[in-house]
Write a structure and sequence with these properties.
The chain is built from 14 helices and 14 strands. With about 375 residues, it is an alpha/beta fold. The chain has helices spanning about 15-30, 60-70, 70-90, 100-105, 135-140, 150-160, 205-215, 230-240, 260-265, 280-285, 300, 315-325, 330-345, 350-365, and strands at about 1-5, 35-40, 50, 55-60, 90-95, 115-120, 145, 165-170, 190-195, 220-225, 245-250, 265-270, 290-295, 310. The chain is globular and about 65 Å long. Helix 10 (about 280-285) links the parallel strand 12 (about 265-270) and strand 13. It has 2 domains: about 1-175 and about 350-365, Rossmann fold (3-Layer(aba) Sandwich), CATH 3.40.50.2000; about 190-345, Glycogen Phosphorylase B (Rossmann fold), CATH 3.40.50.2000. Strands 3-4-2-1-5-6-7-8 form an 8-stranded mixed beta sheet, sandwiched between helices.
Amino acid sequence: MRVVFWTEAFWPAIGGVEVLASRLLPALSQRRHEILVVTDDDMGRLPSQDEFRSIVVRRPSMRAALLSRSPERIAAVRAETAALMQAFRPEIVHLNCPGASGFFLRRTPTSRRVPLLATLHSERAMPSGGSATLVAKLVADADWVTAVSEQVLAAARLALPSIASRSSVVYNAVEEPAEEPQPLPFDPPVLLYLGRLAPEKGVDRALMTLSRVASIYPHIRLVVAGDGPERPTLEAQATQLGIRDAIDFVGWVSPARVPALINSATLVLMPSRWEGLPLAGIEAALMARPIVGTPVGGLAELVENGVTGLLVNGAPTELADAVVSLLGDRDRATAMGWAARRRAQALFGWGTCVDSYDRMYEKVRRENVHGRVG
């Protein structure tokens, strides 16, 4: 099947949405889907024509055109996206993480109706403003809507009740690593944050949590793995809290190194303010690490509170109490980690995820009963 995968950002961007896509599309390509990725050129920083693991990638300057407010530039990008669609002749469009670039998708003329699948990755995928927003219109146009967790789906259905009968959950997933989980280290304990350094991830809460836990476990360390716009602010915060020497800011970590990094940790912190279904959480669970986090988005489905980890509100005092309770009970922490691994294997299997999108493409193409592209 010929599939246009339309997404706000794609590899080499390194957020969870982009990493999932970089793994999913080659797997779907092996199922005999011919895929064209249409994404943005990141304000001209990325090439307009590219290839990723034999998948063609095209990057019109969509964001730059919209920010310019120039009718001529917008018209030129419309013509470019129309030419891409007409040349590729997709049998389905998979709109991944709808955003501003969808302006051009809705206004791309096509000679025939193209079925549309939309995938939502966050509780905040449907912004305030009701059904009049661009994203809401894109989602309302879709033949089918998938969400990465039940909580994300519930938020979307609340915002757009019309999609209730044509929407479902496809959980995010990762391939199970070949590396075996190692015993949790306690001497000294190591906390790990793995993800983008962005406000919604609550890394500032992780730092405040460490400052409290360090009064009980003075040799504890926090590894912050990832990069993003908040890094300078977080490093300054660590200095201000007097814990800079207890934190390793290691930057972006390649996917191949992630299992070993998780194996070096005792607990994984996920103090997010909002979430979809974080890949880092699934990876932590597969490496038998308990998670201490907040019950937002798909975290409440990934972590069975009290069984595979602990979920508390985002207050650093509560996060610190949860961390201390597990560090003080090694048997409980270890048991939670292995329970997390079993749960991840059962619910977030990679093959299940790929199979679900494979079947969804066929379903949407076959039924083709709602909305339209163009």
